[in-house]
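Appendix B. One record, verbatim.
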Amino acid sequence: MIPLFVILFLGFIVLLSSFFTVKQQSSMIVERFGKFHSIRQSGLHLKFPFIDRIAGRVNLKIQQLDVVIETKTKDNVFVKLKVSVQFMVIKDNVYDAFYKLEFPHDQITSYVFDVVRAEVPKLKLDDVFERKDDIAIAVKRELNEAMTTYGYNIINTLVTDIDPDIQVKNAMNRINAADREKTVAEYEAEASRIRIVAKAKAEAESKRLQGQGIADQRREIARGLVESVDVLNKVGINSQEASALIVVTQHYDTLQSIGAETNSNLILLPNSPQAGSEMLNNMVASFSASNQVGEMMKLGNDKKPKSKRIEPDYNETLELNKSDEEQEEEQNE
């Protein structure tokens, strides 16, 4: 009974070892007596125990291999590139993929190194960043031509990272920062220019309006003076006396307004008892001198040809402009 049980147990084990399964997206290589026999796809399969053996499994999924290469550019800058290669085994070429290449990853890495080190030295550092897609296309083209023979299909190649030397990166950052600072300075200068121009225009407009206001004020003052003189003339006061009265009145009104203003600055004015009379005498003398000069010029124009001019007697004019005090001093002398 015991030997029979052992035989049945061994037979059951052998039967179980005759069946095997293949997972989805993979293939099994079966060899018989060390020689290739068949390729089994996904599902349940049978093999002869002790005769057939599973030599290996081939993955049919898309795989990715990341390759880091250090090379130099045309402007002698060393840079590290990370190239990601996406590939897969062609389902109909499982035999070639399994038997022709021992280490496919090493083979792909060698081709990537060869292509990148042939393409990057042709470009400057800035061009490497701008034309990384061209480098990826060149790698894919070279890999497809080489790896198709071994049953591999290159799906895509990507240059995922470009890492120059740290000093070069710092220099590039400084250049970028300086360029941005230059742009900021240009914008700030333009803004300052606009502010200055706007301020100048505002000041010019303010001065224009201020001048216009002063002109209007003086025009109205002159009209008021004319009206005041007319009113005084109607009551028997001549023009000179009216003008003197108006000037003296404005003088004392000004002094009164300065004294009434608490926040006014100190202003020194002639305020002696003789100030009003001196101001009045000077005005009367000026008016008289002006009238006499005008009459002399009229007489001269009537007696002589128009081409000749009569020069006024400035000594007489000066005598008229002298104050009463000076005339009294001359008389006493």
